[in-house]
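User: Please predict the structure of the protein below. I'd like the answer in C-alpha cell form so I can feed it into my own downstream comparison script.

Assistant: Understood. Taking the following sequence of 135 residues as input:
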Amino acid sequence: MVKIIMGPKGSGKTKRFVADVNDAVKNEAGSMVCIENGKNLTYDVDYRVRLINAQEYEIKDVTLLKGFISGLHAGNFDITHVFIEGLYKIIGTDLSQAEAFVAWCENFGKQNDMSFTITISDDPAKASENLKKYL
C-alpha cells in the first residue's frame, strides 16, 4: 500500500505525517523506517522508528533511494512500513521521477509486504492521475 500526503508548504503535511508515523508504531507490527532530508523530526517521531537522514547517505535521486530502501529491506525483513518525508527534497522536483518511484514502491511493497507513506510538497491539483490514486 502506498499513501501520499500532498500539499503546498505550510499546509500541515508534516503534522499529518508525524501522526501517521506514531499511529503506525502503536497499531502495526514490525519495524518502521522514516527517511527525511535533514534531522527535523528527531523529537517528533516515536523513538522506536528508525529515523534516517538522507543527506548522511548522499541520497540525491530515485535510483539511490530505491537502492537504499532495497538494502534496508535486505538487512531487515521485519520492516513493514517505510515513511518518506519530503520526497521532492530528496530526489528533486521531477514529476515523472516521482511517479516512477511511487509505482516502484507499490510493486516493491506488494512483493515484500511493506507499506509506504510519502509526503510531497506541491499543489495536489498538479498531481497526475498516476499519483492521485494514492492521495
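That's the full C-alpha cell string. The longest strand covers residues 79-85.
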